[in-house]
Amino acid sequence: MRRTRTRTALVAGAAALCLSITACGGDSEGGGSLSAPGPEALEDLDSTVQVEFWHSMDSTNGQVLNGLIDEFNAEHEGRIKVTGSFQGDYDTTLAQHRAAIQQGNTANIVQIYDLGTQFMIDSGQTVPAQSFVDKDGYDTGPIEDALLNYFTIDGELRSFPFNNSTPLMYINKDAFEEAGLDPEQPPKDLAGIREYAEALTVRGANGQVERYGFGAAVYGWFIEQFMARAAVPYCDSGNGREGRATEVLFDDPNVVELVEWWQGMIDDELAAPLGRGTDDAQAAFTAGRAAMTLESTGAMGGFLEQSGFEVGAGYFPLIHADDPAGSIIGGASLWINGAGHSDAETRASWEFVQFLLTPAAQSKWHAGTGYLSVNTEGYNGPEASERAAEYPQFSVAADQLANSETNINTAGCMMGVMSEARVAAEEAWEAALVTDATAADALSAGTDKVSRKIEEYNASVG
Question: Cα angle vertex 354, ends 107, 387, to 5°?
Fold first, then answer.
């Protein structure tokens, strides 16, 4: 899945470059308002309102989502019917949606990953989430602050958070105890990880490493997370929230230090050289080849089921012990298309989104998938409470977000070529590890590469 995302990110990003209102359809073609209709839009209906929902949830996650769709449809039988349609992974769904815009045939609701936020705004197709909030006086108070922070641009909530996650540190608690380390106190920064890794790394009689102290993927999302926790913006113009971003900043000295640290860990055989594949990094952890790793909360269920040892979880680490911390989120949000759709369809779409955000629905969603409960009251639901009692590790992610400051840095970068930027950061990071390029030079070359793409994108949207 990780390799697929990397391979298709460039396709999705390239598709995003044709963004003028004329080229993409705009809100003037096919009718439809970009303001939220009131409940009267669903009065005196002659037939059931059909809502098409495009998403990227398959396997277990898709089954849980389909269960929620069925529950909503049963409650609104004869009035509203939602049909879910799996479109592929995140990049594919974004590309499919872009094509649908050009054809004037978008779904009523589309699930788009965090990196597509600026594209969705620029496409001019959706009713801003804030419009629904204002129209109904909808209370966003129970919604996780960190999630509202990410999807709020220029003071307006643009989409509704739904399947969201945050990365954590995972540890092999058995290995910790074997090494005389406290498994309830995972390391908190890079220096601590190295210290623990020295105790956790095991070599055989021939001197070869049998278990590395640390091992994680070279994944661009982690750079974004480290920067946010160090209070460093990922792109200029206030992380793209005070104006159009014109450059990325992942050549910051903090990131250079991170990459140099990573190289030193590999050179000293304290960290497994795992490359960019998250599947490989997950397998190394569950097989016991790496005693500590970094991964999304979405990996926790698999870790608990597949590991032959007790799995622990801690906060995502800091570069320096005195960094201010803070977390950004991953995952996707829900966008309601207004262009080309009737008021009845748009209102029905909002009714469904409200249902998904209820504590009851979020309790089932969190317990069934491992994603965060967008509505914090969902953690008190029976399904979520039962899961927390069985697996207390799941509470770490919620605690990390609750303890995170909400500011421009933790809001994340808002930029139309964010998918390309993440790939470029990974490529630069990897180049510093496997070539003669220094970390500073590799990261600088990566930022220059992204600057050209930003310039093309910004020119395309005027």
Answer: 110
